[in-house]
Amino acid sequence: MKVIPTRIKEVLLVEPQVFGDRRGYFLETYQQERYAAAGIDAAFVQDNISFSQQDILRGLHFQHPRGQAKLVQVLQGEIFDVAMDVRRGSPTFGRWVGVTLSSAEPRQLYIPKGFAHGFCVLSPTALFSYKCGDYYAPSCENGICWNDPDLGIDWPVRHPVLSEKDRAFVQLKDIPPERLPAYEG
Known about the structure:
The protein has helices spanning 32-37, 164-167, and strands at residues 2-5, 12-15, 18-21, 24-27, 46-53, 57-63, 70-76, 78-85, 96-102, 108-111, 115-121, 125-132, 141-143. The protein has one domain (2-179): Jelly Rolls, CATH 2.60.120.10. It is mainly beta. The longest helix has 6 residues, at 32-37. β3 (18-21) and β4 form a beta hairpin. It is built from two helices and 13 strands; from the N terminus they run ββββαβββββββββα. The strands form three sheets. A six-stranded antiparallel beta sheet has the order 1-2-10-7-12-5, with no helix packed on it. A five-stranded antiparallel beta sheet has the order 9-8-11-6-13, with no helix packed on it.
C-alpha cells in the first residue's frame, strides 16, 4: 500500500497493492493495523454504497457536531472527488483537494473529520463505496453549495444534476461559525 500526501496534509490518497493475473485481480480495501500505521486511524463504524448516473453531483456534505472521517473508493466507473477543509481556524480553511478515482485504477481517498465531501460522476454510471467514522446523523447534516465562487472548485462537469437538498446549500461564508467544526491542530 502506498500513501500519497495531498496539498492538504490530512487528506491522503491511498494506492492499495493490487495482485493481478489473467483471471483478474485482488486487493485489500482496508486493514485496520496497516491503515493506522499509515496515519488513517479513524474507527470506521458504517459502510455505504452510492450508485449514480453521469453528471450527477453529490455534495458538498459534512456533519457537525458528529463529524465523519471517510475512506472513499470507486467500485465501478469514474468520479471526480473533492474534500474541502471546513474547520474554522484551520490554516487550510476553505481549501480543497480534488482527485479522479476510478475502478480502472483502484485508489482511495481518506477524508478526515472536519472536511466537506462531494463528487461528480464522469462515466456513464458509477458505484461508489465509503467507510464512515461516525454514523449518519440527519440532525448534524450540513452542506455548502457546490459552485461557491469563493472556493473555486474546478468541477469537470458543466451542468451537473443535483438533488433539491444539494441545490439549497449556501456558500461557506454564509454558514454561522457555530455550525462549523473547530480546528484542533
